[in-house]
Amino acid sequence: MRIWSIHPNYLDAKGLVALWRETLLAKNVLEGNTKGYKNHPQLIRFKKANEPLTAINWYLKYVYDEAQIRGYHFDISKFQLTGNIEKLPVTDGQMKFERQHLIKKLKIRDLNKYNQVIQFKDLDPHPLFFVKNGYIESWEKVN
Predict the structure, then answer these.
(1) Domain extents for the chain?
(2) What is the DSSP letter of 57?
(3) pTM: predicted TM-score of the whole model, two decimal places
(4) Cα–Cα 20 to 30 A to 143, which of 1, 28, 84, 104?
(5) 7 CB contacts (<8 Å, ≥6 apart)?
């Protein structure tokens, strides 16, 4: 499961669809609707939010918005916006790690997207997040 901290506009088609599906799985976990993935590290930051389900729904909303821009047909009924958006922190170290991780994937999967993304030294965060100083997040699996 990879729930990106970077803005979904940097993802290729395969990455955006995977993000949608994986975030829906994460939402099901937070709702208690699945037995697997309950302690997945990618969920830690959502679990730390004041309202984890509200946070994941807002996350999905921005993924949905990017899909709409691209003409994809994601199902808006899969999430429900309630409450106010709570911006969650992500470290600049995590953002740099994810940039490098994405670049490796794009170089194999989508050279056009790779050539776009490689031009940016820093990538914008997903709108749910704000960037703070720090190392790679403790929940990240680093090889």
Answers:
(1) 8-132
(2) H
(3) 0.94
(4) 28
(5) 66, 123, 124, 125, 126, 127
